[in-house]
Amino acid sequence: MKLNTSNIEELAQLAQQAAQLAADYIQTQVRKTHEIQHKTGVSSLATQVVTAIDVESQRIILDHLAPSIKSYKLGILTEESIDDGSRFEKNYFWCIDPLDGTWPFTQQKPGYAVSIALVSRLGDPIIGVVTDPYHQVSYLAMEGRGVLKNNQAYEKAKSKPSGVLHCYFDESFLASASYPSTRDQLHLISERLDCTDLEIHSGYGAVMNALSLLDTDTGCYFKFPKTNRGGGCSWDYAATRLIYEELALWASTAQGEHIPLNNSDTPYLNEHGVIYATTKELHQELISLEAQRKQPH
Hints:
The protein is 37% helix and 23% strand. By secondary structure, the chain is α+β, with helices and mostly antiparallel strands.
């Protein structure tokens, strides 16, 4: 079944409602103490951490989306459930992260969000919804129709250059062996971009790392490819990829290709990496940095 404009608008509204219901629930739980469990088989702390709040948020979302799944014959890919393969059988699937940034949530800090996207079987996002419970901000993107922020038309403001290169990272990367050399390279990149300062930010989940760049004139969030399982999954990037595309910003793999959202083998993107950037020049610098990193020393 091919979705028409009316179908997409209906599904976008449902996704917004589901994300808001989940966000409202999450925010009632943020001041409480939660038992933290750890997933196995992944390399980073951010990927391992899960709580009962993640699971309940997912239930709330799926309950709200259930009629659409039946009516439109949609597949599902969601973080806290086993991949049932329906994303390969249906023309479209819901791609859901019920609580991205579980770690900052458990620390009662900003950086967590609900992310819901509708993705085609080819791996392209059609609808992208993100709700930030902490700041009570929501984003909605529909393919070819721009972005709404809190239900108002949104475009990234063109601000006067601040002279600062803002870089967002997962906390685990700051403790990695490759971070010092990467930071040195970023200083060189900042000089080439006529930035006088480099600011490193960490502690957010992947979704809010990407969206926080919208408040910067020159900013990036990236994860270079690695062999270990992790590096984020389709549900971490599906909604923000569409938001960036609709804002004519740069979201890609570390090689500059579209972020694949329906890989046949695994939803993990560790072999691809990701780059989000607010300028074309910065995006190209990071692609070049990855190419240099892969060269034998």
